[in-house]
Amino acid sequence: MGNGNSSRSGSAPSPARYGFSDVVRAEQQLRAAGWWSDAGPTDEPVISALSRAPDPDLALLAVDRLREAAAEEWPALAKELGSDVVVRGGLIGVLGASSAFADHLVAYPGDWRRLRSRQENQRPDVAALTEGLLAAVRSADGILTGAEAISALRGAYRGLLLEVAAADLRPIVERELPGESFEDIAAGLSDLAVAALRAALVVAAAELSGREGADSVEDLAVIAMGKTGGRELNYVSDVDVVFVAESEEALPGATKLASMMMRVAGPAFFEVDAALRPEGKAGALVRTLDGYQSYYRRWARTWEFQALLKARPVAGNVELGQRYVDAVWPNVWTAAERDNFVPDVRSMRRRVEEHVPTELSERELKLGPGGLRDVEFAVQLLQMVHGRSDADLRSPSTVEALRSLGEGGYVARADAADLVESYRFLRTLEHRVQLRRLRRTHLLPELDDKDELHVLARSVGLRSSGRHSAGEVLVAEYRRHSNRVRRLHEKLFYRPLMEAVAKVPTDALRLTTGAAVQRLAALGYTSPEGALRHIEALTSGVSRRAHIQGALLPMLLDLLANTPDPDGGLLAYRKVSEALAETPWYLRLLRDEGVVAERLAQLLGTSKLVPELLVRAPEVLRLLSDTPALAERDPGEVATSLRSAVARHAEPSRAVSAARSLRRHELLRIACADLLGLLPPTEVFRALSSVWAAVLEAALDTSVRDVAARAEWQTVPARIAVIGMGRLGGAELGYGSDADVMFVCEPVPEVPESTAVRFATSVVEQVRRLLGAPSQDPPLEVDIDLRPEGRSGPLVRTIDSYLSYYRRWGEAWEAQALLRARPVAGDEELGERFCAAIDPIRYPDGGLDEARIREIRRIKARVDSERLPRGADPATHTKLGRGGLADVEWTLQLVQLRHGHAHESLRVTSTMSGLAAAVQAGVLGEEDAAELGEAWTLAMRSRNAVMLVRGKSGDQLPKQVRELTAVAAALGYSGDVDTGEVLDDYLRVTRRARAVVERVFYED
Asked: What does the H/E/C string look like for 810-836?
């Protein structure tokens, strides 16, 4: 970069004054053009215009290239640049914004004269544009074909495109000239695209007439779709079309013609995309009108009717094209009544949100959050919902449709006006980034690329402001408009509902109850009348609380609409809000912490358990904004905290009530983290087991103190340990699991065993009574049926008593049950001694003999045939079904009973740890263990998901679609998953596990 003072006196102006960064080169180019002398500028209007170009350096370089290319035409061009403000503004505006147009003008220097053709602001119509393109391919021998035609068409098309761009950019350079609106420019680009399609069709017919005998152009109609159909095209875009043949007999020729037309248009103008046809790229390129009608009646998805909103005939047999539009048009206005409308709408919305890579989303003008597709999709959906009964809403233009929605009262007029403004701004940015190199792109420059942002800002008429550069002003404006659009669903779909239920008497909004019901139904609420009642209940009155709810609900309604059960979620939100009406921070938290509202909506729209717990543990709401506090709390720390809090209460019922309260808090915290995908399954099981054990510990401690204080005792005559069995012993509890336990006691020195047992029995009876007392919380059932002699046996025994029973009377299934025994509460040393004492029973020396193996297999077969509840589906019963929990656990336990004596690593109580140990010990194949582990984990997670969704435990996967969808969401499937896929996954995993069970459990 130079500073360029060598050829001028110190007082002469510098080109730097006019915004040129390379001063030496700029002066050389200006002198060559005759616009600069030693005294400074000699043509102030031209140089000033160059300084106002989006990129003055690029504009001057392009002018210099054009000067050399134009040769003898340069004097005339230079003269008009100095005298004609229209030519000057158009040429410098284009050259300062687009290097691609500079290349075109160097190749076609005479095209500068095109910039005079629109001085009267007379826009050429489609016929004139078509004629301009066809003139380029006419010759004495007829229509040019092949590469020669494509080259001629490309040059002519770029010339006509130059005219549109000059009209678009002229006011940026010469501000006194009237500008054309975004709508005018988009319409001009669309008209040019239609002319290009017509010209391509003529050339295609000429190509085929000499080779394949193509049928008449009248046998084919070309229907424009998308932005071309809506007359809102951008500079560089695919052009979406559908082809219609006059008859079955004409189909072969029409298909050849359509294919050739696409081959001509691609290299000459733009890609012609026929993917919106029935069955997409796999479907026939051309169909008859009857073929289209048959498809739309039987097979079409909602998005296909949405695409038809913008359909219009543009080339070929226009009368046939109009018949096509007339035939399919009524289908658009009944699509909202179709059974699959809501799932299709949700699927389309998610595709909009998920289509763009995360790292590009902030710069993505079209598909990013708050981008163009958000506006277009929302407008089209509202048209399909309300256009059924209001023909004024049926415009193919996004801007016109938005205005009609505002005027019709379906959207507040101010909201419609704001979105029109934002849409225009974002579309204009899209135009400018495409103009730079005439490439199809929707990406802003990198937000730290100051030079590119500076040029882009100037190309849309933005300049520096105070301490902010033009680029910084652009980024701020972009974010303002993007953030406004980001709330478009709130503004367009939900805020009018607030006004409707409030019955606001204003001309700005006239959404009737019927229209509000239609809108809610379209968004997935199966009982829209009930939803409106909830909205009215939450927002009625003039209190501050009602005002905040009115501001919150649009966002929450939108969030809930994306959950498996919007109606249940909204009802739950109302119940929670009413229960917490006097909690001062509740609504403030939802208003100020966006992540809390988002997560709460997801939870309420998926789970019935969460709202039941939330009304009694509202403090967990605060954790929703803090992922570490919600999902990363150590279970051991939780258990210690719970026991400490309970120890402060002397009275047993209060102590256990405190334990229940803390368990409720932890249960809700774990459920929230689980549903939000923040806690791995093994951590969920471990955390639930740890909380249960802590509650048992607390209840035991308080009961020991209380019983010992009675006159009968006045001391603690026994040590007591609680032995976890079943899933508690394996630290693998689910949300609805009972706690299987056994109690063991030991007298303190000089106390008779009978006294110790009697004392311990009194303590255990109180523990069971306190924990089993009725409560609104999930039950705390202490199940002691696995003790010796079952329900008829004593509640508590000493170690010797247990050993005596097991040695004399113990059966194979009781040794099997002991495999999961571990101390969970009470005297830890006593519990460890008990577990060591029973090791010879659960890990018998030499393993199991054949008789005991047969006995275990016999019992398992009996469980399979007799224990499954009547009416249960064995394929999807998570506990007793094929490949379910019982299958996996019995298989592992048989392996442990047979080989635990020889392999100490097998002596674990956890199912997953046991499977890993079995592989390590060489007694189970790695692939078999993987199949069993996957099935066991899926069955456990599915069981938990059923509890979360229903609010009550269940072992059967739901058959009802909405419940199964919620279970799928709880399992982490994406929102638009097919429930059939969920069942297929479960059946596939459990079928493989069952095959392992058949081989390992029954045959080895």
From this structure: CCHHHHHHHCCCEEEEECHHHHHHHHH
User: φ, ψ for residue 222 (rounded to 5)?
Assistant: -110, 120
Q: Quote the CA–CA distance of 660 and 642 in Å, as a whole number.
A: 10
- Residue 765 CA, chain-centre distance (Å), reads 52
Model pTM?
0.73
- pLDDT tens, position by position, 826-874: 999 999 999 999 999 999 999 898 999 999 999 998 888 888 888 899 9
Could you give the CA distance from residue 847 to residue 896 in angstroms, rounded to a whole number? 9
Question: What are the residues whose beta carbons fall under 8 Å from the beta carbon of 448, sequence distance 6 or more?
Answer: none
Q: Is residue 34 classed as helix, strand or coil in its secondary structure?
A: coil
SS3 (DSSP) at 214? coil
* Tokens coding 583: 């909690």
Both tokens assigned to 328: 């399919």
Are the CB atoms for 166 and 115 separated by under 8 Å?
A: yes
DSSP letter at 493 equals I
- Whole-angstrom distance, CA of residue 675 vs CA of residue 373: 30
Task: Note whether 104 and 438 are within 8 A (CB).
Answer: no
Question: What are the angstrom distances between the C-alpha of 320 and each of 289, 313, 325, 980?
Answer: 9, 8, 9, 42
Query: Is a pLDDT exceeding 80 seen at residue 149?
Result: yes
Residue that has been written with the tokens 């103009």 in this structure: 435
- Cβ atoms of 178 and 117 within 8 Å: the answer is no
Residue that has been written with the tokens 């040429």 in this structure:
91
- Report d(CA 589, CA 596) in Å as an integer: 7
Phi, psi of 461 (to 5 degrees): 90, 15
Give the integer Cα–Cα distance in Å for 245 and 252. 9
Confidence of residue 596 (pLDDT cuts 50, 70, 90): very high
pLDDT in tens, 628-664: 999 988 888 888 888 888 888 889 989 888 888 899 9
Kindly tell me if the per-residue pLDDT of 779 is higher than 90.
no
CB burial of 24-48 (b: ≥16 within 10 Å; e: otherwise) equals bbbbbbbeebebbeeebbebeebbe
Q: What is the per-residue pLDDT for 3?
A: 43
Residue 117: strand, helix, or coil = coil
Q: What is the C-alpha to C-alpha distance for residues 942 and 746, in angstroms, rounded to an integer?
A: 41
Cα distance between residue 306 and residue 302, in whole Å: 6
The pLDDT of residue 562: 85
H or E element that contains 502: helix 495-502
How far out from the chain centre does Cα 750 lie?
Answer: 69
Tracing tokens 């006294």 back to the chain, one arrives at 755
> What pLDDT score was predicted for residue 591?
85
Give 134-186 as a DSSP string. HHTTEETTEE--HHHHHHHHHHHHHHHHHHHHHHHHHHHHSTTSPPPPHHHHH
Q: Is 890 exposed, middle or buried (0-12, 13-18, 19+ CB in 10 A)?
A: buried
Sorted by sequence, the CB contacts under 8 Å of residue 844 that are 6+ apart come out as 815, 897, 901
Q: E-assigned strands of 736-843? A: 739-747, 782-783, 796-798, 822-826
Residue with the two structure tokens 């805020």: 495
The answer to whether the CB of 192 falls within 8 A of the CB of 160 is yes
Residue from 380, 372, 230 nearest 304 by CA: 380
Q: Which of 242, 259, 244, 90 is nearest to 178 (CA)?
A: 90
Q: Which residue in the block uniquely carries the two structure tokens 């921070």?
A: 585
CA dihedral sign, ordered 330, 332, 333, 334 = positive
Distance CA 551, CA 534 (A): 15
Average pLDDT over residues 554-569: 90
501 pLDDT tier (thresholds 50, 70, 90): low
